[in-house]
Design goal:
- The protein is mainly β.
- Helix content is 0%, strand content 49%.
- It is built from no helices and eight strands.
- Strands 5-2-8 form a three-stranded antiparallel beta sheet, with no helix packed on it. Strands 4-3-7 form a three-stranded antiparallel beta sheet, with no helix packed on it. A two-stranded antiparallel ribbon has the order 1-6.
């Protein structure tokens, strides 16, 4: 799947939904990013990945490799980078 160039400072967002038993691999070759996903039979799961690396504003492609038993869909978009969450603090700690 091809995606267009974005604005500098925007994140590339890749959301994948899958169902069926098996492992799939999602690759974004233009920025040297890939990630595996474990899909479960009889369960629909969604994984949302935000990519903020050098060159992410360029156009590129996303590819998916999955066994035939896995049904999947893919959404690619752009958006403002999510703010990092600070670690929770334990109120009981001294």
């Amino acid at each position: 799947m091809e995606f267009r160039a974005g604005k500098k400072g925007q994140a590339l967002i890749v959301a994948v939904r899958c169902q069926g038993g098996g492992k799939m691999k999602v690759e974004v070759p233009s920025v040297h990013v890939s990630f595996p996903l474990e899909c479960v039979a009889n369960e629909v799961s969604t994984t949302y990945n935000q990519v903020m690396v050098t060159g992410v504003e360029r156009s590129g492609t996303v590819s998916v490799t999955a066994p035939t038993a896995v049904h999947w869909s893919l959404t690619v978009g752009r958006g403002e980078p999510a703010q990092e969450e600070s670690p929770d603090t334990d109120a009981d700690a001294a």
